[in-house]
Amino acid sequence: MRHDAQGLPISTDSAAAAAAFDHVVAGYLGYRADTPQRLAALLAVAPDFALAHCLQGYMTMLAYKQSVVPAARQAAATAGRLGIDATAREQLHVAALEAWVDGELDAALAAWEAILRAHPHDVLAIRLSHFVNFWLGRAHDMAASIERVLPHWSPAMPGYSTVLACRCFAQEECGNYLAAEPDGRRAIELSPGDLWAAHAVAHVLEMQGRRSEGIQWLTGLAPNWEGGNNLQHHLWWHCALFRLEQRDFDEVLALYDTRFRNLSAPLTVAAPDVYIDVQNAASMLFRLERQGVDVGDRWHELADHAEARVGDCLSAFTLPHWMMALAATGRGEAAGRMIEGMRAFASNRGTLAPIVRDYALPISQAVCAHRAGNHAEAVALMRPALGGMWRLGGSHAQQDVLEQVFLDAAARAGQTDDVRLVLERAAGRRAIPLERMVGWHEAAHQFSL
Ligand SMILES: [Fe+2]
Hints:
Serine Threonine Protein Phosphatase 5, Tetratricopeptide repeat
């Protein structure tokens, strides 16, 4: 029996396996692009280590991609077979993976929280719970989870900056911007290359309208992102969002082409349809077009990937973004197939099915109707979903683009009650007046909000 970097027992007698395990977990926590290679090295030195196979399953599921689920299911089966004598904590991890593979996200979250009640230093459970809660829109669960474990941590423990970064982001998503920021900044002091901490503080700055500070924050930290994974792209998307608010549209497009949707960048070439990249790209093109910016043919490659992902509903928040690309390129037949894919998925069991049925589906239909100029129809489709669409997951900064779909449709349809409805929702979330927001200021000015 060895121990991991946080002192928890792990069911391997091999020092090399324990070190390789810690290396993978550190790669995951640090958003390192070489995490798959670290994982392969772990499995090579410890082919009989159940938790290593569980980790492989977790890393596979994090792609939020239907086509790789069978591989994760296989990893779960191997972990279950090898883990008969594993610790109760390790067996709970395997149970969490099995639940995740089956689409039972509530059961997976319950397993991680059960681990954390007994083992608050289990940083893998902390981060997975944080992440899966985030993609279900459950900000308060994210915050509660972190607040329970944080008192058990100290700055000397490996992974401490990750816990602080998670606390910063959870508090930010709860709207507690003043409480959030110091933890994110402290995490960066401890670990300047912590991408999640950089990201969490960027969100605070975004919600408070601190655009110049945001650009300085991100560009100042960017030299530390070498070797990071696709979260780097998302950080550059945040930088572009600050530039957008400064109406520097040329710079937004430059960042699009060179930093967050650079089609020749190695990370993008290796995996051109990663959900976060698609969200970044589609949401920015939509915002730019609303400002009258010609985005050229940039929608087309996104639409190509969207067609290849028809029927894949594992990332519910990505679905309206896929649909934006299909609608923008006039691919009505593919859009129809994507809608049918969502309907079919909605009849499945699992946590996501009702979320896709009640939110992703009508909002995606609204995206199509909006692009076709059927604005009243778009409003009617989307209105019932507005109040609960946080369940799709995604940050407030990301959900903003869906509210802009509704705003634009309502304004063009001349439905002033609906314009007021969405203005009031958006205004309640921001720490700054909507008059200071590109995409909102015109309607806000008109309605004196
Ligand atoms: Fe973000």
